[in-house]
User: Fold this.
Amino acid sequence: MSFNLLIVDDSNSMRSVVKKIIGLSGVGVNQLLEAENGRRALEVLGGNWVDAVILDINMPEMNGLELLRKMSEDALMKNIPVLMMSTEASEAHMKTAFELGAKGFIRKPFLPEEVRRMLLGVLGFDDKGDYAERERDTGGVDF
Assistant:
C-alpha cells in the first residue's frame, strides 16, 4: 500500500525534514506533495488525489486552522484525514483543530515511529499496516 500525502508547512527545511521522516517511517508513499501555506494547499488539493494531509498550524497567508475550515466546507476535501503538527500548539488551537475535523496531532520534533503510527491511524490502519477493525454497515454495500 502506498499513499499520496500533502505536507503543508511554511518552512522549506521543515518540509524536507518531514519528507525524510516519512521515508524513514516505512509508510509507503506514491506521491509526496508540498505546499508552503494553506492557500497553496487548496490549489494542490483541487488538482490532485490526496490520501492525507500533514498540516502545520502557524503559517502566513492562510494558517492551518483556516485551511481546515475551508476543507470542512468542501464536500470532497472534508473527508481527507488531516494530521496536525506544531511546536507550540495551545489547547485552544488543538480543540479548534479537532472540531474542524483534524484526526490527529503530533508535536515537533517527532520520530519516524510516531509519524508511522499517527499516519497509519488517520488512514484507518493499525501499527502493522493492516486494516483496523471497523464497524460494518450490514444494511448496505461495502466497497
Notes: Confidence is low (pLDDT under 50) at residues 134-143.
